Amino acid sequence: MRKASEERRTRETEICVSIDLDGSGKTNIATGVGFLDHMLHSFAVHGRFDLEVAVEKSDLEIDCHHTVEDTGIVLGKAIGKALGDKAGIARFGSAYIPMDEALSFAAVDISGRPFLVYDNVHKNEMIGNYETDMTEEFFRAVAFNAGLTLHLRSLYGANDHHRIEAMFKAFAYAMAAAVKKLDSGAPVSTKGVL
Questions:
Q1: In which pathway does it act (predicted)?
Q2: Is 53 part of a structural domain of the chain?
Q3: Chain centre distance of CA 167
Q4: Is there a contact between 49 and 43 (Cβ–Cβ < 8 Å)?
Q5: What is the pLDDT of residues 116-169, one digit of tens each?
């Protein structure tokens, strides 16, 4: 079973995350940031991951920065733990996802070499109590804590909600492809290890 739980407790946030990479898309998410809850729900449903996220303490009275970034840190660590030694997975995945007028792309390599390329220009600063600039910080936190090389791009779109949601869904489909189990238990690597 590829399941894991992680938590992070700081002076600013207390966050618990559980993920099952072989789930069915069941969620229980409460971060205090409505748009982030919506994006995490989309990620889980479209990736077919069971996901629980509980932000038990946050400093949302200041802004959403620590809540969003720390949720990404804990989610990334949970994904990394659930993947274990990464043997027998497809390793690579990519997807283009349209959402109305918007089109986004994601490509992932579960390489153990964290890197993020993020290409999206936000037209608005806020969606509800979510700062759109935090999208890049969230994905950086996930990538660096899960050991992913992650490329994300919004190709076009007039609506920030659509552009970002298409990006989260593209990430979900790319991750679902990358974590898929292969017949062979060997790592997909010329080095023999990931």
A1: Amino-acid biosynthesis; L-histidine biosynthesis; L-histidine from 5-phospho-alpha-D-ribose 1-diphosphate: step 6/9
A2: yes
A3: 10
A4: yes
A5: 999 999 999 999 999 999 999 999 999 999 999 999 999 999 999 999 999 999
Give a yes or no: residue 193 inside a domain.
no
Structural domain of residue 118, as residue ranges? 3-178
CB burial of 81-98 (b: ≥16 within 10 Å; e: otherwise) equals bbbeebbbbebebebebe
Q: Are 172 and 179 in contact (CB under 8 A)?
A: no
**Is residue 148 in a domain?**
yes
pLDDT of residue 24: 97
What is the CATH classification number for the domain harbouring 155?
Answer: 3.30.230.40
Strands (E), 42-148: 50-57, 92-99, 102-109, 115-119, 126-127, 130-131
CA separation, residue 42 to residues 25, 74, 164, 180 (Å): 9, 18, 11, 19
More reliable by pLDDT, 135 or 85: 135
The answer as to whether 120 is a domain residue is yes
Instruction: Count Cβ atoms below 10 Å from residue 51 Cβ, excluding itself.
Output: 23
> What is the residue whose two structure tokens read 């804590």?
145
Amino acid 59 reads D
Give dist(CA 189, CA 42) in Å, integer.
30
Q: Mapping DSSP to helix (H, G, I), strand (E, B) and coil, where does residue 15 land?
A: strand
Distance CA(158)–CA(83), nearest Å, equals 36
How large a percentage of the chain has pLDDT more than 70?
Answer: 95
